[in-house]
Every structure is written in structure tokens, then in C-alpha cells.
Design brief:
By secondary structure, this protein is of the alpha/beta class. It has 21 helices and 15 strands. Helix 10 packs across helix 11 and helix 12 packs across helix 16.
Length: about 425
């Protein structure tokens, strides 16, 4: 596989420095991509860069994932209007290990292959460098005029940030350039990958390598991912879509991809999966014949969920998704863990019920019209039960005199009530 050719048809190239393609064609090349370690999980905003590394390794080259322990202590002005929070070393090390575990699902770190991936942390080669050493060995090679010309600096100086640009942030491009210089010198790393907002920082590194070592280094950036409607990719009402199931459940993760627009699904299949061009073209054609079946979204959601989580998590997410639309989902409902149950029924009206009442057994009409306000009156509850319009845990209630006991509890604390076709209520046991 040809790396640039592969990224080109996938729409994953924004800018390539001249000479990059020739360097890659010479043989195995080492490249690095920087990852911000300010959390102990990646989110889907990182995925485009991670997929670049994955394709790079699949094309026979050697990827380095650089965790920005030092630069994470500084903050990068690129695309930001405020400085980042500064992290302590213990937090950075914890975050690094968590991120490596996630990256292991995309990259081969463990084999004996000559192009196996490595993780590096710029804190390791920066922590012992004194300010005077840095100023003398690095600072003198890059002029202030050169640094000032960068777009990221100009935007901050021209009023995008309320408080201007701190000296700390101004030095960020020098620190990133120092990373590239160090990796070039120590690991023969000749290419840096990143998002298009990183171009200025990356080229500072290539310039430093040229001026200090007389070496040739290269840069390749991917476009910043956007949504077809202009909205920000990867953001939901509840914030980022994380790769760690503690922050975003596999169900919610799956739902994010399942619910993207047709235009976005076509684009995301190319960027976020390893499907071939032929497979994606076939999906596009299938989708055009019957858009209502949403084959692109379904395949996208499957590929990314299996890649990030597992086949088992994907199957569980599909099963959980079917609960809303199936009248025979009682068994699937009982298999749901509490977090997924709450995710599936996020936003539905919730009522608290007393545990003692359930343990003693409570008549269904009293539960729905007295103990809770699912129905405004017992008469309405009785009438709808008689009409077959009430379900408890997706099982139709046929007897108005039925008694609900603790056996009906899901995860020992919830009961799902369905009134009519679309109205759901969650009853939660309170001690």
C-alpha cells in the first residue's frame, strides 16, 4: 500500500510538504504524531490522527505516538482561545498508560516487526533541559520574526484571546520543534503527522532540523473533521464522545455513529474505518438504492464500535437499540447493565418508588396512578390496561388486578413502564 495514495482517496490529506512522497518511497520511514495527554482517555476528535498512524503502519512504516507530557504542561495556542490547565507528572504518567492501552487496539506495539509502534513522551527528554541550555541550543536557531509569522500566533495576537498570548504559549512551537529535532536525531524520525491546525508548529520542527543538523524532514497534515451541517464533529449535548467506556458507554458510542447524516456517513467510512475503497463504494451504492435502511450508518457504527470496544460490546449495543422498537425485548432488557439501561432511556420521565412497597407487592393500577404519576387516575390506568396499551419491562399487562413485586426489578432497582407506543417511564426504587 502507498500511504499518500491511501490517505488521498480517503480524504485525509490537507497539506503535504514537498519531498514527503519521495521519502516514503525510499523504504520504511519513521513518523510521529503528538497526542495531548490532558485526560486519561482519547475521544473521537483524536481518531483521525490515530487512523493516520494505523494506515502508516499498515503501509510498512514505523509509527511513533508521542504523548505530550512536557507540552501538555504548557498549552498550545493553535485553535485555542485560552490556555490549557497545567498537569502534574503523576497525572501525566497515568494518562500516558491509559492512552497507550487504547492505542494498542489500533497499532501493533508488541510484535517483533521492524515497524512496530512505539510510544514516547516528550517530558522524558525535556525535563532535564535548563532554560539557558534551551535558549542557547534551540532558541538561537529560530528567529522571533519566523515565530511571529505563524497563523496560530497571529490569531491570538489579533484579539481572538481576551488576555493575549503568554510567553509560555509563544514558546510552544519551539518545544514542538525540539521534539521533532530530538526524534529525528535519536530515532531517525523524518516525518511528523498532525491536524491542519498544527502545520505551523510542525514546520518549525522541520526548519530547526534543517538549520541545526542540515537534515531533511517532512510534514503531512489531515483536515480538521467537520460535520456536513457545519457543526463541530464529536461534540454532543453531554460533551465529548470518549473511547473509554467509563465516560461514553459502548451503547452511546454506537448510537453516535449510527445517527450521523448520509453525507457524513460516506465521509466517515473513509476516515474512521479500514474498509477498502471497493467495500465503501459498494455501501454507497447500496445506500442509494434504499436510504431508509441506512446501510452506511449501520456499517460505520459496527466497524468503529468493534475497533474501539469489541464485537461483544457492538452486539450488546445493537440489542439495546432494538429494545425501543421491539415488543418482545423483555429478555434483552434484563441483560442490560445499569449504565446502558440509563443511556437507552436517557431523558424519559422517572419516578421514585418505595422498596418496601415493591417487596410487599403493589397492585399495578396503584403503582401507576397512586405511587407514581404514570397515569393521572386509576380509571385511566385500568382502561388502557384493558385496551392492551400498558407494558411492564416490555411485557404487556393484561390483568388490571395484577400485583407487581420485586421480581419485576431490573438491576434490582428499576421498572420500565410503557404507556401506548412511544411513552416510556422509568420507576426507580428508593430505600
Amino acid at each position: 500500500m502507498d500511504f499518500i495514495e491511501e490517505l488521498t482517496w480517503r480524504g485525509m490529506i490537507h497539506t503535504v510538504m514537498p519531498g514527503t512522497d519521495e521519502q516514503l518511497k525510499k523504504g520504511m520511514t519513521t513518523a510521529y504524531l503528538g497526542i495531548d495527554p490532558t485526560a486519561d482517555s482519547l475521544h473521537i476528535g483524536h481518531l483521525c490522527g490515530v487512523m493516520m498512524l494505523r494506515h502508516f503502519q499498515r503501509c510498512g512504516h514505523k509509527p511513533l505516538a508521542l504523548v505530550g507530557g512536557a507540552t501538555g504542561m504548557i498549552g498550545d495556542p493553535s485553535g485555542k482561545s485560552a490556555e490549557r490547565n497545567l498537569l502534574d507528572e503523576a497525572t501525566l504518567r497515568h494518562n500516558q498508560e491509559a492512552i497507550k492501552k487504547q492505542l494498542s487496539k489500533f497499532l501493533d506495539f508488541e510484535s517483533d516487526a521492524p515497524n512496530k509502534a512505539e510510544m514516547v513522551n516528550n517530558y522524558d527528554w525535556t525535563k532535564d533541559v535548563t532554560f539557558l541550555d534551551f535558549a542557547r541550543e534551540i532558541g538561537k536557531h529560530i528567529t522571533v520574526n519566523y515565530m511571529m509569522a505563524k497563523d496560530s500566533v497571529q490569531k491570538r495576537l489579533n484579539g481572538e484571546a481576551r488576555d493575549g498570548l503568554s510567553f509560555t504559549e509563544f514558546t510552544y512551537q519551539l518545544l514542538q520543534g525540539f521534539d521533532f529535532y530530538t526524534l529525528y536525531k535519536d530515532k531517525n524520525c523524518k516525518l511528523q503527522l498532525g491536524g491542519s491546525d498544527q502545520w505551523g508548529n510542525i514546520t518549525t520542527g522541520t526548519e530547526l532540523i534543517r538549520r541545526k543538523l542540515g537534515g531533511e524532514a517532512y510534514a503531512l497534515t489531515c483536515p480538521l473533521i467537520t460535520k456536513a451541517d457545519g457543526g463541530k464533529f464529536g461534540k454532543t449535548e453531554s460533551g465529548n464522545v470518549w473511547l473509554d467506556p467509563r465516560y461514553t458507554s459502548p451503547y452511546k458510542f454506537y448510537q453516535f455513529w449510527l445517527n450521523v447524516s448520509d453525507a457524513d456517513a460516506e465521509k466517515y467510512l473513509k476516515i474512521f474505518t479500514a474498509l477498502t475503497k471497493e467495500e465503501i463504494d459498494a455501501l454507497i451504492e447500496e445506500h442509494a438504492k434504499d436510504p431508509g435502511q441506512r446501510p452506511m450508518q449501520k456499517r460505520l457504527a459496527k466497524e468503529v464500535t468493534v475497533m474501539v470496544h469489541s464485537e461483544e460490546d457492538y452486539n450488546a449495543a445493537v440489542e439495546a437499540s432494538s429494545i425501543l422498537f421491539s415488543n418482545k425485548a423483555e429478555e434483552a432488557l434484563r441483560h442490560l447493565d445499569e449504565k446502558t439501561l440509563l443511556d437507552v432511556f436517557d431523558g424519559v420521565p422517572t419516578f421514585n418508588i418505595v422498596k418496601a412497597d415493591i417487596e410487599a407487592g403493589v397492585p399495578v393500577i396503584e403503582l401507576l396512578a397512586t405511587k407514581t404519576a404514570v397515569f393521572p387516575s386509576k380509571g385511566e390506568a385500568r382502561k388502557m390496561i384493558q385496551q392492551g396499551g400498558v407494558s411492564i419491562n416490555k411485557q404487556k399487562v393484561t390483568d388490571p388486578n395484577a400485583v407487581i413485586t420485586a421480581e419485576s426489578l431490573l438491576n434490582d432497582k428499576y421498572i420500565l413502564v410503557q404507556r401506548g407506543k412511544k411513552n416510556y417511564f422509568l420507576l426507580r426504587v428508593a430505600e
